[in-house]
Amino acid sequence: MGLLYRPRRLRGTPLLREMVRETRIGKSALIYPVFVKEGHGVKEEIPSMPGQYRYSPDTLGFAVEEAQQAGVNSLLLFGLPACKDETGSGAWDEKGVVQQALRAVKRDFPQVYCIGDVCLCEYTSHGHCGLLKGEQVDNDSTLPLLAKTALAQVQAGADMVAPSDMMDGHIRAIREVLDGNGFSHIPIMGYSAKYASHFYGPFREAAGSAPAFGDRKSYQMDYHNRREAIKEAALDVEEGADILMVKPALAYLDVIRDVSQAFDLPLAAYSVSGEYAMIKAAAAAGYLDEEALVCETAVSVFRAGAQILITYYAKELARFLDEGRIG
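-> structure tokens emitted (327 positions)
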């Protein structure tokens, strides 16, 4: 036929396909989210997230060891306190559950990189991410408490903090408190574009953080909006964020692409609980190949422009990298 250009030439063998691959992933790009529950001897499976567990600080080491054996060395810690109150005071208590977990991990696994989730929703009796004024979340009065929470986590051993509350001005408030207490070297990963998503359902069961009334649409982003993500990310950059994030991942690949092209900072994407639960459910029903789908969806996130992936499938993805299924 006299064809000069034949794209199939570069698809002929596995080695050649890997050689010319545009999107590459490494284990260092994976962050594993872990739920820590106050108490002792706890390891309980999360019904809506098969294969994921709540651990107490004294059993968390089993999860850390499994992650390390797979080659995953970064954790994002979420806390489930024994008691909650109106202000979420357990979030910044030096004996709070995440602080206990951080000290335990750093004692037994000093090489593991620990990121503390900074929010009040798991700690407030009403389940919202900030202080209430009536039935509205009061943005400005919440900021000092978020900063106190970040400081308490760093003092307990956190290597990075990640505020997920979506309060305006939270990055600046945290940065000023960390810098003022000698922690100017600690990076902040902003939940820059965090959408009010229906994909969070299993997480809210896992963390016990569903709001007691109303919803979070007054502070999390409207999923109809795309340009607003650039505005939110730009504010995080101005306020001193070191890493940006888009959450959820799979239904927001266009936003990941936009943010990655607009800013030079590293970009994370959070493949959230609902994404994990959908794949698990489809695989359990025999509708889809779980391993193949995990690989494909992960690559789609990196292809869109993320450099970091927060995922409950981190250990499995690390194994697939070892097997050469992705990379």
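The first strand starts at residue 30 and ends at 37.
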